[in-house]
Amino acid sequence: MSAPINNDKATLAFSSLNLHQDLLKNLSTLGYQEMTPIQALSLPEMLAGKDVIAQGKTGSGKTAAFGLALLEKLQVKRFRIQSMVLCPTRELADQVAKEIRKLARAVHNIKVLTLCGGTSFGPQIGSLEHGAHIIVGTPGRIEEHVIKGTLKLHDLNLLILDEADRMLEMGFEAALDNIIERTPLERQTLLFSATFPKQIQTISESIMTEPVMVKVARVKINPILVSTFFMLTMIPIDLPHYDYYYLIILLSRLLFFVIQKKKHKQSAMPYMMMVLAF
After folding, report:
1. Tens digits of residue pLDDT in 132-157
2. Higher pLDDT residue, 94 or 236?
3. What separation in angstroms does the CA of 156 have from each of 58, 111, 161, 256?
4. Pick from 55, 186, 191, 221: most CB atoms within 10 A?
5. Residues 154, 163, 21, 5: what is their CA dihedral angle, to the nearest 10 degrees?
6. How far apart are CA 34 and CA 14, in angstroms?
7. Which has the closest alpha carbon to 142: 167, 105, 169?
8. What is the 3-state secondary structure of the chain?
9. pLDDT tens digits for 51-94?
10. Torsion over CA of 13, 163, 76 and 211, rounded to 10 degrees?
11. For the whole prediction, is pTM greater than 0.90?
12. Long-range Cβ contacts of 94-101 (<8 Å, 24+ apart)
């Protein structure tokens, strides 16, 4: 493993990357102008075809990072499963698939297929028979497909493990082993994890080739700078003789009340919504 790259000040414009013009135009349309630290540190390495271990928290921009690398590598005219993203939960897999589709909307005819547990197996087989470029799913369901032969990974050239530490915590190590041993040895592997325990290090050594380590340190927040914390509550109050009445008071530290009365005075009490900012 190469020496860790952890310069959190690395922030560059997406336009500085060697990305396809369609991807860059779409990023601009989406309002993505400047990369986050994890994107600035990992994307050049991923676009260069290197195996990458990126350590960063949820919300760091990691999905867009590996999504762009995935789309840049993809050969759209080659209608085979070329990339696969493994996620610990169905909810995360759905979010990742949605983000990839959003990043890919300027590139025509890209098919992203989600394979997760909790949904019927049969329709997934039908979708796989129609083909796809990108698979996003959970280890349990994907393992089931590869064992039964309904998911073939002969053409896979990019494997992404998202939130790898969570997958291990949830007991997916055996499933990951079964899946990875069915992928080509000649592939690029990207591993994203919020933490980097010894178990992750052991796995990375067995499935990756000279990976580049990218680490984004936790941002230290000065409590003095935290000026807004919102608390919402609904308090019934008795204000007779008011019809559809809104009263808004905005104080310097943001304290306001919204008072509303239903149409029929006698039918219900109005409510006061209190929003406090500290």
Report:
1. 999 999 999 999 999 999 999 999 99
2. 94
3. 26, 15, 14, 56
4. 191
5. -110
6. 6
7. 167
8. CCCCECCCCCCCEHHHCCCCHHHHHHHHHHCCCECCHHHHHHHHHHHCCCCEEEECCCCCCHHHHHHHHHHHHCCCCCCCCCEEEECCCHHHHHHHHHHHHHHCCCCCCCCEEEECCCCCHHHHHHHHHHCCCEEEECHHHHHHHHHHCCCCCCCCCEEEECCHHHHHHCCCHHHHHHHHCCCCCCCEEEEEECCCCHHHHHHHHHHCCCCEEEECCCCCCCHHHCCCCEEEEEEECCCCCCCCCCCCCCCCCCEEEEEECCCCCCCCCCEEEEEEEC
9. 999 997 777 899 999 999 999 999 999 999 999 999 999 999 99
10. 70
11. no
12. 95/63, 96/63, 96/67, 96/136, 96/162, 97/136, 99/63, 99/64, 99/67, 100/63, 100/67, 100/70, 100/71, 100/134, 100/136
Residue 259 near residue 270 (C-beta atoms within 8 A): yes
How far is CA 58 from its chain centroid?
7
* pLDDT tens figures, 237-261: 444 433 333 333 333 333 333 333 3
Q: In the numeric block, which tokens belong to residue 269?
A: 């009490």
- Written as one letter, the residue type at 200 is I
C-alpha angle 84-87-90 in degrees, rounded to nearest 5 = 115
Take residue 8 and report the two structure tokens written for it. Answer: 């959190």
Residue 133, both tokens: 């470029």
Q: Contact 161/208 with Cβ under 8 angstroms? A: no
Angle between helices 21-30 and 62-73 (to 10 degrees): 150
